[in-house]
Amino acid sequence: MSTRGGGSRAALGKLGETFACQYLQRSLGWSIYATNWRCKSGELDIVAVDGDWLVVVEVKTRSNQAYGTPLEAVHLQKVRRLRRTVAEFLSGAAPALRRALDVRFDVIGLYVRKGTVTHVEHIRHAVEAV
């Protein structure tokens, strides 16, 4: 799957999130519930439904390894922020959604070269859920 994008850091991140949504929907058949959901605690890149799971997907996109791999960017401080943000998300979610689905955290790491995704790594259950 090829996705084109600009060269700025924000554009690189947007390209990665767009690709990740397409990957989750087209390749895995997941339903996307929300993207770029924000609150005072932080942002959730993708919230999707995978069977009986409500999956919070953190997307990390890199053009090189100068600052480490995409998956290394999900550190303890980021995990703590994700947990707080998910708690806020769930507090506002429909009660039926909160009762029906278990929550898990996945991470998708992407490499992009010249506007094209060259490598995808999807780690399911990457972080212990809330």
**Approximate strand percentage:** 35-45%
Q: Structural class per helix/strand content?
A: alpha+beta
- Overall, the morphology is globular
- Helix-strand pattern: HEEEHHEE
The side-by-side strand order for the widest beta sheet comes to 1-2-3-4-5
Q: Whole-number average pLDDT?
A: 87
Q: Percent helix among the residues?
A: 25-40%
Task: Characterize the quaternary organization of these chains.
Answer: single chain
In CATH's first tier, which class applies? Alpha Beta
Query: Cα distance, first to last residue?
Result: 32 Å
Q: Examine the secondary-structure arrangement and name the CATH architecture.
A: 3-Layer(aba) Sandwich
Number of DSSP-assigned strands: 5
Considering the chains and any ligands shown, give keywords for the structure.
single chain; 130 residues; alpha+beta; Trna Endonuclease, Chain: A, domain 1; disordered N terminus
Protein model, in words:
With 130 residues, the protein is of the alpha+beta class. It has helices at 9-27, 76-92, 95-100; strands at residues 31-39, 42-50, 53-62, 102-113, 116-127. It has one domain: Trna Endonuclease, Chain: A, domain 1, CATH 3.40.1350. It is 32% helix and 40% strand. A five-stranded mixed β-sheet has the order 1-2-3-4-5, sandwiched between helices. The protein is globular and about 45 Å long. The N and C termini lie far apart (32 Å). The model is unreliable at 1-6 (pLDDT under 50).
